[in-house]
Amino acid sequence: MPWVNPAEPTSPLCFQTAVAPQISRKTSTKKYRTTFLVSNRASLSFSWLLMMPHPVIAIDGTAASGKSTFSRKLAQRLGYVYVNTGAMYRGVTWYLQEKQTPLKDIDAVTREIANAGVESWLENGELAFRIAGLDPLPHVREARINEAVSLVAQVPAVRSVLVAEQQGLAAHAPLVMEGRDIGTAVFPQTPYKFYIDANAEVRAQRRQLQGETDVIQKRDVLDQQRAVSPLTCAADAFRLDSSYASVDELLVIALGHLRARGLTIPA
Ligand code: DC
Questions:
Q1: What domains lie within the chain, and their CATH numbers?
Q2: Is any ligand 1 atom within 6 A of the Cβ of residue 88?
Q3: Where are the alpha helices (DSSP H) in the chain?
């Protein structure tokens, strides 16, 4: 079976990004909403790392690797809430583009995100997301966002705000959360981690079939090489290769892995 490999040890760098302390809790207002500001030097406290009120299944991987389809289906099968964190980075990118913020200007992006007010919560079993009171999610699949999102995702202030939002969501429901740093930085303590990849041709074909113009290889390079929480396979993640496997085949493997790790799978 060429498409399933055991987790491979990876560079210890991914664990440096996972270690965390000193969150300063700035506001906590709405129901289902928690906002933290995390300093660039600091990260999560150990007490926070150990506190997981609900199980979280972390799914990371390359662009167009089939993460979303797999994650959505896994969430459905388990009765968990599916959270696509890429949509949050895309949402911030949309907002900055609307404001005509120069995306290469880290100070300008940092100022905008600090002033905008980001909110996320779970509503009807889905992620709801607002930036400056606006819902960006209907706009986030545009080609101009594919082109720019990895640039915005490099900015530490953007990551701090969104990671804190993502961590807050786990207080309210069991989650299947997909992204690039979920198993390494957002929920490094979860025992349930997958890393999904597929070969470059298959991924390009997928985007074409979806009718999207996407710069997937360029995004992968930026996502893998950024200084803060780069895309990498956590040492304890289970790797899945979706190049030639159907989502149902991957699901059977994943459920077997989760069961072996002690997760209760509903009948
Ligand atoms: O999953 P996606 O392709 O929609 O994500 C869009 C971009 O957002 C991706 O190229 C990098 C960024 N991203 C990130 O840096 N961290 C995440 N947890 C999710 C996405």
A1: 56-257 (3.40.50.300)
A2: no
A3: 13-18, 46-50, 67-78, 85-98, 106-116, 143-152, 156-169, 200-209, 216-225, 247-260
